[in-house]
Design goal:
It is a single chain. The protein is mainly alpha-helical. The chain has helices at 3-10, 14-27, 49-59, 71-78, 82-91, 110-125. Helix 1 crosses helix 2 and helix 4 crosses helix 5 (82-91). The longest helix has 16 residues, at 110-125. The N and C termini lie far apart (64 Å).
């Protein structure tokens, strides 16, 4: 099949197909699609930046008394951009704005109110 036809079907440039074929001839099927070492954009961040973002996010609180970090407050604290902070959070699946605990009410009638709400919900949904 012609390079142009393969490129059309795969949605790539014909030169890409030529590179695939050359890699296949030189190193076999395992080499096709593998990105060579040293290719791609280099990170402008130091090696310890992501580790520091994760550490501060998980172990420290903002100095302004807030309950959790925002990308902007963390960025100011560490001297990075808010987008960098957001990307590191995304890469490490960090969501500091989400509360991971359950707060118990101090209302002395909490249990009675809870039973009423659950009963109302069950009545509305038709559940037994």
């Amino acid at each position: 099949m012609a390079n142009e036809e393969i490129a059309r079907r795969c949605g790539v440039d014909p030169n890409t197909v030529r590179r695939w074929r050359r890699c296949f001839v030189e190193a076999g099927v395992e080499s096709v699609g593998v990105i060579a070492k040293g290719r791609g954009q280099k990170s402008a961040l130091g090696d310890d930046t992501a580790a520091e973002v994760v550490r501060v996010t998980c172990l420290e609180s903002p100095e302004d008394g807030s309950t959790h970090w925002t990308t902007r407050t963390l960025a100011r604290r560490l001297g990075i951009s808010k987008d960098t902070a957001a990307r590191i959070w995304r890469d490490h699946n960090l969501k500091p704005w989400k509360v991971a605990s359950f707060k118990i009410s101090n209302d002395p009638h909490f249990e009675d109110n809870l039973v009423d709400v659950v009963g109302l919900y069950l009545d509305l949904t038709g559940s037994p």
